[in-house]
């Protein structure tokens, strides 16, 4: 189902200044990721809210329990995909199309990054339902 709302504003990492730039650095360090995900860049476009969000989210994101929960989601999703759907063997396709080992490793790096990040992002949002009601358009 496509997104049917107006275009969202985002703050790019290169545009980030002050508190936002510091939060972006802290986010990357806390989550162990090389980039700031789109959802955080959208939240950064709400300059009064973003620091409040990070102040509330950061302690949760620093716990082993949080990352264990993300791993459980990741494992469950992988299992569900393997047992419910016919998942094609893309590795053999990469080889068939002449991808070098280095190119195959780059593809695997991207896949592993998103397998890591997406459960983390999914777990972040249910923690803040009251905050979301503040942001709903009237």
**Low-pLDDT regions:** none
Helix content percent band: 55-70%
Protein structure class: mainly alpha
Strand-and-helix sequence, N→C?
HHHHHHH
Overall morphology: globular
Mean pLDDT score? 86
Would you report the number of β strands?
0
Our measurement of the CA-to-CA distance between the termini, rounded to an integer number of angstroms, reads 24 Å
Number of helices: 7
Tally of domains: 1
Describe the main β-sheet briefly.
Answer: none
Beta-strand percentage range: under 5%
Structural description of this entry:
The chain has 138 residues and is an all-alpha fold. The protein has one domain (18-133). It contains seven helices and no strands. The chain has helices at residues 18-31, 38-43, 49-61, 64-84, 90-96, 101-124, 129-135. The protein starts with 17 loop residues before the first helix and ends with a helix. The mean pLDDT is 86.
What distinguishing features does this structure have?
mainly alpha, 67% helix, 138 residues, single chain
Task: Summarize the helices and strands and which ones pair or pack.
Elements: H1 18-31, H2 38-43, H3 49-61, H4 64-84, H5 90-96, H6 101-124, H7 129-135
Helix pairs in contact: 1-3, 4-6
Quick overview:
The protein has 138 residues and is mainly alpha-helical. It has helices spanning 18-31, 38-43, 49-61, 64-84, 90-96, 101-124, 129-135.
């Amino acid at each position: 189902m496509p997104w049917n709302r107006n275009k969202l504003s985002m703050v790019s990492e290169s545009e980030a200044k002050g508190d936002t730039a510091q939060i972006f650095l802290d986010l990357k360090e806390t989550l162990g990721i090389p980039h700031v995900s789109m959802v955080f860049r959208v939240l950064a476009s709400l300059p009064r809210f973003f620091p409040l969000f990070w102040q509330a989210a950061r302690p949760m994101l620093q716990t082993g329990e949080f990352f264990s929960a993300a791993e459980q989601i990741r494992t469950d999703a992988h299992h569900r995909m393997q047992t419910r759907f016919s998942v094609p063997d893309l590795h053999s396709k990469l080889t068939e199309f002449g991808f070098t080992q280095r190119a195959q490793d780059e593809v695997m790096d991207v896949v592993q990054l998103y397998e890591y990040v997406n459960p983390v992002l999914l777990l972040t949002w249910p923690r803040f339902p009251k905050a979301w009601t503040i942001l709903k358009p009237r």
